[in-house]
Design brief:
Blueprint: H1 2-7, H2 13-24, H3 30-53, H4 55-65, E1 70-76, E2 83-90, H5 92-101, E3 102-112, E4 120-128, E5 137-141, H6 146-159, E6 168-171, H7 177-184, E7 189-192, H8 194-204, H9 211-218, H10 223-233
Parallel strand pairs: 3-6, 6-7
Antiparallel strand pairs: 1-2, 2-5, 3-4, 4-5
Helix pairs in contact: 2-3, 6-7, 9-10
Length: 235
């Protein structure tokens, strides 16, 4: 039950009741379910409070014990009482692996956090030499916007020894990410996520039936094959 609540704090009491009955053969009342859920949510909140309170200490220990790592805490200094705003984390093995064994092609994305404090988890994920994904950094921020992306990419750029390396970023082009890239990585090239591109295309042109041809063209690795796939899509 505790795992279900942690994974989905909005889970219905009926779902919890059914899960307990199927697992243990007993059927507690909804009143007991609600009481247990409130208790678990309270413990979950205090657990998050304690973890967030230890982030600065954790970062300092990491920098001392795992040389070459990145651990940066961002503080909101504009409020009357300065408070936690962001946290960037990248281990030395991730940084070294990116520099020595990855292509200069980096995907950017973000997902919402479902804990009691919300926020967004931003991620930076390049491709290795075998076209496998190789995460190199994550960052907890207050929301996904130009300022948060700029802070994340700026700190990452400072920590990576790639000043003389042309890098290509792939993103969904939303929420200020392009402006942040231009500000922090001015020499970088931009490419766009084909899934988002196709979604926007079909939204603007609902009668367009080019899905299969579109995906075939995206997998072509030379100009001739690409143009052939594009010509086929026009038939």
């Amino acid at each position: 039950m505790a795992i279900l609540i942690r994974d989905n704090p909005n889970v219905k009491a009926k779902v919890l009741q059914t899960q307990i009955k199927n697992t243990y053969g007993v059927e507690p009342s909804k009143r007991k379910i609600y009481r247990a859920k409130r208790k678990e949510l309270k413990m979950l909140k205090f657990g998050h409070v304690d973890c967030y309170g230890q982030l600065r200490k954790y970062g300092n220990i990491l920098l001392e014990m795992n040389l070459g790592s990145l651990a940066v805490v961002g503080i909101d200094t504009l409020s009357v009482t300065p408070k936690f705003q962001r946290f960037l984390l990248s281990f030395n093995a991730q940084i070294t692996g990116f520099i020595r064994g990855c292509r200069p092609f980096i995907g950017l994305d973000g997902c919402h956090l479902k804990g009691p404090f919300g926020g967004v988890l931003l991620s930076v994920i390049p491709l290795d030499s075998y076209s496998g994904i190789f995460p190199i950094a994550v960052c907890v921020v207050e929301n996904e916007c130009r300022d948060s992306w700029s802070w994340f990419l700026g700190k990452l750029h400072e920590g990576l020894d790639v000043l003389d390396r042309t890098t290509t970023f792939m993103s969904d082009r939303q929420k200020g990410v392009l402006a942040a890239i231009k500000q922090q990585w001015p020499r970088a090239d931009n490419r766009y996520c084909t899934r988002h591109f196709l979604a926007n295309l079909t939204k603007e042109c609902p009668r367009l039936k080019a899905g299969s041809y579109f995906w075939k063209s995206t997998y072509k690795v030379n100009r001739q094959d690409f143009m052939e796939a594009m010509r086929a899509s026009k038939k």
